[in-house]
Amino acid sequence: MDVLVAIRNIPYSNVSNFLLISTFEGILYHKDIYKKLNRQLSRYSLANRISKNNNRVPCTKAFLEICEDQKEYWQWIFQRNYPLETPLKNFVIKQDLEDFINSCFDYRNKIAHPEITALIQLKPRHLIPPLSTEPEEFILEKLISQVFPSFLIFLIRIWLRKGFKIRTDWDSYIDNLFP
């Protein structure tokens, strides 16, 4: 909650976005997800295993599982220009959400590691407004500042609704979402 209050007072959007994404990661990080995901991946190939230094994949997968469990489809992010008349009843935009979160982690990592000079690619590509002349990084920056507070509030509400008292209750909830 402190981050959500503090970001309003930070004049630099990249710093506030860095805090939002890092807080998102901190809430979703769970050490046992690595093991479960790597067990699933080892069935296919050892080359795809997730290193313990890569928090992006487990955090993203945890968020997707939580969204599916809570039936939150985030369609307003991806259908701003052409909203559906009937709300989604299943998670058909799961890959879009995963791609968006991965772009956000790329953005955060570029701030944390200034030696990274590669341009950030906003994915999914349909989030870029037609005929936009703004750099993708600027569009992503705006999206992060609009969307990530909603992500954090969503996670906090789940915590409160389920009556979790300590972090291990939350970790147990996330752990139970993975087969």
Structural overview:
The protein has 179 residues and is mainly α. The chain has one domain (2-177). Helices cover 60% and strands 0% of the residues. It has 8 helices and no strands. It has helices at residues 2-6, 13-28, 31-42, 56-70, 75-78, 94-112, 136-161, 167-177. Helix 2 packs across helix 4 (56-70), helix 2 (13-28) crosses helix 6 (94-112) and helix 4 (56-70) runs antiparallel to helix 6. The longest helix is centred in the C-terminal third of the chain and has 26 residues, at 136-161. The protein is globular, with a radius of gyration of 17 Å. The relative contact order is 0.16. The mean pLDDT is 85.
Distance between the termini: 30 Å
Number of strands: 0
User: How many H/I helical runs?
Assistant: 8
Order of helices and strands: HHHHHHHH
- Assembly category: single chain
Contiguous uncertain segments of 5+ residues: none
Biggest sheet architecture: none
Count of individual domains: 1
Percentage of residues in helical conformation: 55-70%
Mean pLDDT: 85
Shape: globular
Q: Which structural class matches the secondary elements? A: mainly alpha
Return Rg in Å: 17 Å
Strand content: under 5%
